[in-house]
Amino acid sequence: MMGIWPRWLAGLVCGVLVALPSAGRAADYPDRPIHIVVGYGPGSPPDILTRVATSHFQELLGQPVIVENRPGASGTIALRSFLKQAPDGYTIGAFASATAAVLSLFPDTHVNLAKDVAAIGQVDWDYNVLVVSNKSRAHSLADLISQLKANPGKMNFGSGGYGSPAHLLGELLLKDTGTKAIHVPYGNFQSAIADVISNRVDFMIMGAAAAVPQIKNGSLRGLAVTSRKRLPALADTPTFVETGHPQVSTPAWLALIAQPGTPPAVIKRLNAALNKSLQMPAVRSALGNLLAEPAGGTPAEASKVMVGDAAKWKRVIAEAKIHIK
User: Fold this and answer.
1) What ranges do the domains of the chain cover?
2) Exposed (0-12), middle (13-18) or buried (19+): which is 232, by Cβ within 10 Å?
3) What is the pLDDT of residues 83-119, one digit of tens each?
4) In 3D, which of 67, 39, 65 has the Cα closest to residue 254?
5) Strand order in 65-69's β-sheet?
6) Could you check whether the bond before residue 30 is cis, i.e. omega within 30 degrees of 0?
7) CATH class held by domain 128-248
């Protein structure tokens, strides 16, 4: 017998021995607390949605779940930090569509969602509403488009800042309708809403959960929503699809993600927990109160949504020549 193993055989045996502990850990998963990194601050929509969707994870997985907020740069700071963590399922991420939309605005992030992120599953769909002041002369989307065409580059729209969802959706609307308007970014989103209400800002596209109370009390008028069908809370407001502008019908979403290389068994366990959680009446009710629609599904389906949206917004950003100021 040979006293020394051939190099290729020694390498093969070492590889198997290294893999065995990982397989064992995956089989026992989870055996300690799980941390979920959210790239937005406490009380933000991604934070609230994450806490609602994972509120039953402890009973489903048998371990505590700790939400950690790491806000900054539209979630890209948290994403970069998260992707450096071990791919073992103990640090997962809550990834918002707002972050996918701005990846091309932060070239230092260098994240390709198709290969650098392992999707766990999609949490929800949530929607935006095109609003104008109740004092506005625009009573429909057609009215607003006519006014924009009659006053090219003279009207304006508000947002929470450069690259924010309201900014990108506003640019998408202008592109789709062949119109021009001035973007007015606000550091404080509440100030933007106040200026729309007062009619100092001509229009804005904002989250349905924030818009509905203002529409109900008569301060704002809803012209179109990004949902696939009308929202029960805004039964009189048509969808962008109904108004003939399906390209603007881009809903927002939240997804849970892991690092590439995370064992498939761990991804499967987390995906099952997410889908079970989203079927629980208390979770569905809480999401409904936020005007969010539970999503669920497979990791592959979630990945398709993330990659597709990132590509779409990259085109919008390039065509509108948007950059962070």
Assistant:
1) 32-125+252-320, 128-248
2) exposed
3) 999 999 999 999 999 999 999 998 778 899 999 999 9
4) 39
5) 65-69, 34-38, 91-96, 252-258, 118-126, 292-294
6) yes
7) alpha beta
Q: In the numeric block, which tokens belong to residue 231? A: 């929202």
Distance from C-alpha of 144 to C-alpha of 132, rounded to nearest angstrom = 9
Enter the pTM of the model.
Answer: 0.89
Average pLDDT of span 148-159: 97
Structure tokens at 95: 């990834």
Report yes or no: 40 and 47 within 8 Å, Cβ to Cβ.
Answer: yes
Helix, strand, or coil (residue 39) = coil
Under 8 Å between Cβ of 220 and 133:
yes
Higher pLDDT, 270 or 9: 270
Contact 229, 154 (CB under 8 A): no
Residues 113, 116: Cα–Cα separation, whole Å: 5
Tell me the C-alpha distance between 205 and 268, whole Å. 36
How do residues 222-252 score in pLDDT, each as one tens digit? Answer: 999 999 999 999 999 999 999 999 999 999 9
Q: Pull the structure tokens for residue 176.
A: 């789709």
Domains 32-125+252-320 and 128-248 belong to one CATH topology: yes
**How confident is residue 21, by pLDDT bands cut at 50, 70 and 90?**
very low
pLDDT at 325: 62
Expressed in angstroms, the distance from the first to the final Cα of the chain is 70
- Residue 275, helix vs strand vs coil: helix
Assigned token pair, 301: 């389906």
Q: For residue range 122-145, what is the model confidence (pLDDT) as tens digits?
A: 999 999 999 999 999 999 999 999
Task: Give the CATH superfamily of 32-125+252-320.
Answer: Bordetella uptake gene, domain 1 (3.40.190.150)
Say if CB 99 and CB 76 are below 8 A apart: yes
Question: How far apart are the C-alpha atoms of 159 and 266, rounded to whole Å?
Answer: 39
Structure tokens at 96: 């918002």
Q: Using 50, 70 and 90 to split pLDDT, how confident is the model at 16?
A: very low
